[in-house]
Amino acid sequence: MKPLNATLVLVLAAAMPLAGCVSFGAKPPPSLLTLSSTAEVPVGQQQSSASAKTVTIAVPAVPQSLATTRVPVQATPTTIAYVKDAAWAEVPARLFARLLADTVTARTGRVVLSQAQSIADPGARLGGELRQFGLDAGARQAVVIYDASLMRADSQNVEKRRFEARVPVAAIDADAAGTGLSQAANQVAGQVADWVGR
Question: pTM for the full model?
Answer without folding.
Answer: 0.81
